[in-house]
Structures are given as structure tokens and as C-alpha cells.
């Protein structure tokens, strides 16, 4: 059986409550009487209400003050307040709205109008309750996804750590050059996989709104040099020329060092992956102003079709980026989440004569 709507009627005169009780009798509401604002607040602390009918003209603490007190409390500010008043001046009505009142009804109270306005207030409360339920479901879903991400990361990290440890042991053995190169390749791939696993966990936190940026004054010259150094061997293996246009060292920008490093890493990784042999990949970093930064990565691949230039930043979106092969993943989505967390944007344009330019502006 559905629980009846709970309504608190706040009025210093019992007779006024009796009239409202008669007018609303057939509606089946649970009506509670409070002779003052203090009593209404005590009732709210004991039991929530769906609507409050609040008289304006009361001694000690008038309806405006009671309304402000209720709306200032996060536990009660969502409860619709219908002010019952004999005042008709626009200034009084404006004051009530400023204090947080949701609607007014004039004295003497009309039964038809009262019932209509109470139903309207209950609809507002019902819509709020529905939104809260949806929000709770979404929060539970995000928490589940975060928990799953933690579990997956944990399950992947353990065997990966064992593989890397075994490689360290093997590298100490008396190996020929070919064997050493194979071990180095396994280690490089393992470190790359570890990087991607960590990205998965960071994305789960970003999605859940739980990742707190650890921003410091960062010198992008140092970050870029480190990332380029890491990719130089891969670029050489693929006969790709890696070029960097960097600002002078010493200038800093307020960023999360680790996350921005991962963004540059992801963009360079994609650029090398989708560029053909003997192509050119460029990393360009500019300080456009004291508070604006631009990072660009240009590749020599097939480019990105115009209709895909928005969707490729969405998770798991498939796009034909290179070599006629459909690609899917989290890299660009990760970049978008991190850049937007910094208050910036990321977009892609065509590179001439061919390829793509990925631009980050913060």
C-alpha cells in the first residue's frame, strides 16, 4: 500500500490548521500540525515531510525566517514550501521567493486552489525523489565499475610483475645478442602493458569523479624530452622520423605531471602506430600565453575521417584510422578525460599533405 504524502502545516493558530485539514480531508494526506517554526523544525528532525504549508504572519519567528532556515539545511532544502499569506504586496511575495518559497496561496484559502497547489508541490517533490533514485543507481553503477577496474588491474598486475621479474633474472644470464634483444622487447612490451593497465584505473576514477588532480608547476620541456626518449627506439625500428619543437627549459605551467605525461605518451604512441615507414611524427609544445598551453602531435598516416573526429574520443568507439583496419581502445578517451579535467579541450584536424594533427589546449 502506498504511503500517504506527509504535509506539515505551520501556523500559530490552531483554527487555521483545522480549516486546511477539512479542505484536504478527501485527499488522504498525512497532515501534521506545528504551532511555530521551532516546532516544525523539531518535527522535520524526527520525520521528513513531502510538502510544508507555512503561514507568513507568526509571532517570534515569521514565516520568511522559518522558510530561510529550512531551505538553508541540505537535508530539507528539497522540500517544497507553500506559503500561506494575507499579504499581497509584490515586495512581500518577492521576499518569500528570495527566502526559498516555492509557491504562495492567499488567505482566505480556497479549497480548489489549495488542493491544486498542494498537488503541484507534490509533483515537484516526486520528481526530485525520482531524480535522487536515478542518481543513486548511477552512483552505484559507477562504484561497481570502479571496483571492477580495481579488480581487473589487480589481476593483471600480478602476472605482469612476475613476467617482468623473470625477465630481470634472465637478463643476468649469459645471453647472446639476439636473446638479449628478445628479452628487451618483452620488457618493453611489459612496461607498455603496465602503462595501459594504470590508464584503465585512472579512467575509472575520472569517470567516477574521484580522481583528484595533483597539480604542480611543471616544466613541459622535461616531460617531452623523457617521452621522446622512450619512443625513439620504437620510431627507429619503424623507420619513422621523430621531431620535437619544444619551448625553452625553465618555464612552468600548472598541471598534473603524471597525467599530462600520459596524454603526450598516448598521442605519440598513436602517431607512431598509425604512420607508415619513413613517415614523420612531430611533437610541438607552445605556451600561447601566461595561462594557455598548446600541445600538438602530427603524424603522416591516413588521417581521421571528418565524420569520426568527435566520436574517436569516446570510449570503445571504432574508427578506421590507418591501413584500412578498424581500431578501438581507450587511449584517446583517456586523453579527453584528462584534458577536460584540466579545463581544456582536445580535437583533431587534417595534416597536409596527409595525416592528422591532434591538438590539446589548456
Automatic annotation (TrEMBL):
The modification 4-aspartylphosphate is found at residue 55. InterPro entries: CheY-like_superfamily, HATPase_C_sf, HATPase_dom, His_kinase_dom, HisK_dim/P_dom, HisK_dim/P_sf, Sig_transdc_His_kin-like_C, Sig_transdc_resp-reg_receiver. It comes from the Bacteria. Its EC number is 2.7.13.3. PROSITE patterns: HIS_KIN, RESPONSE_REGULATORY. It catalyses: ATP + protein L-histidine = ADP + protein N-phospho-L-histidine. SMART domains: HATPase_c, HisKA, REC. Keywords: Kinase, Phosphoprotein, Transferase, Two-component regulatory system. Residues 6-122 form the Response regulatory domain. GO terms for molecular function: phosphorelay sensor kinase activity. Gene3D superfamilies: 1.10.287.130, 3.40.50.2300, Histidine kinase-like ATPase, C-terminal domain. PANTHER family: HYBRID SIGNAL TRANSDUCTION HISTIDINE KINASE C, TWO-COMPONENT HISTIDINE KINASE. This is histidine kinase. It comes from Aerosakkonema funiforme FACHB-1375.
